[in-house]
Amino acid sequence: MSRAPAQLPLGVGLRDDATFESFYPGANTSLMSRIAGQLDADGELFLYLWGAPGSGRSHLLQAACHEASNRDLRALYLPLGELGHFPPLILEEIERLDLVAIDDIDSVIGRPRWEEGLFHAYNRLRDAGKRLVVAANVAPRQLPVKLPDLASRLAWGVTFHLQPLDDLERLHALQLRARIRGMQLPDEVARYILHRGPRRLDELFEELATLDRASLSAQRKLTIPFVKQALGW
């Protein structure tokens, strides 16, 4: 297997922009620090994070895989919302990896074969001393798990609730992402985008990507009139 977390067997890649540097934590600083340090010698073996869609769960899991790659370690990102139609055979031998990041675990809960596969995967990763970070839209105790042994495994490690960003933090998150793209996003323009754009941050970032392409093509700075024109608002 490649040393890079490119997910070659499943063709699931990582977004280049899904890094810790591009994540604005707000009240989630401690959570981000624990995930970023999970591969340290004293890092947690198991982490579970939950939050609403668009809260940054997938970003953080992919950032953890990027961090593993930066350390020349092997990682695998498994978004089960996309891969749940595969049998749980995709979990076989994951203990050979240094880090496994399982996203949307709630999408396969309640399916006996998947629950059994996840139960055995937890055990193998523990026995091998490898790291696992799991994300879902609810806390472990709120998952409708049918296999009691898996329910106990999901409670291992440390659980974090991803706190939503307030309006000012959302503005800062948008400006951080703009700076990483090499764009200048004035406060008044950022406020306009937040007011007129979608509520979810991941969808806002997609609008920002559209603005980036449009501004490069037109050689224009980001102003409210240009945003209106480029996004059809």
From TrEMBL:
Coiled coil: none annotated. Residues 92-159 form the Chromosomal replication initiator protein DnaA ATPAse domain. SUPFAM superfamilies: P-loop containing nucleoside triphosphate hydrolases. One of its GO terms (biological process) is DNA replication initiation. It comes from the Bacteria. InterPro entries: DnaA_dom, Hda, Hda_lid, P-loop_NTPase. Residues 167-231 form the Hda lid domain. It holds the Pfam family Hda_lid. This is DnaA regulatory inactivator Hda. The lineage of its organism: Bacteria, Pseudomonadati, Pseudomonadota, Gammaproteobacteria, Oceanospirillales.
